[in-house]
Amino acid sequence: MTETNRDLVEELREMGTRRLVRWLTTPALSGFFLSPADMQRIGASLGVPVTPFGRANGLEQLLRGAAIDDRLGDALSALRQEMAAHLARYQALDLPALDSWIDRATATLGAWTAIEAAFAEEEGP
Prior knowledge:
The two termini are 25 Å apart. The chain contains 7 helices and no strands. The chain is an all-alpha fold. Helix 1 (3-14) crosses helix 7 and helix 6 (72-93) runs antiparallel to helix 7.
């Protein structure tokens, strides 16, 4: 893990839910545009109802609903998979103008993966 990713992992771990949600749904910070439809689709796959009025609201509903249902690990995994799919689409466009977004998205995905792994380790089998 690079020093940048370590710093980002630490920063994300220190954030409260609302701040994390705002950060992840602000494309200029995270490198991703996760839509309300993305949140609804992930929620539906987990059996967690999401009726967002916006991206941040949808992500917060998803994370809180998954935590209540003891499915937070599943939600973290589903979000990682969604981010990876978005990143693959960005990379497939092969546009130099997207390089800074791809760099941000790559760092975010790496940090999210590390956080997901730490959560899984804390939760145990």
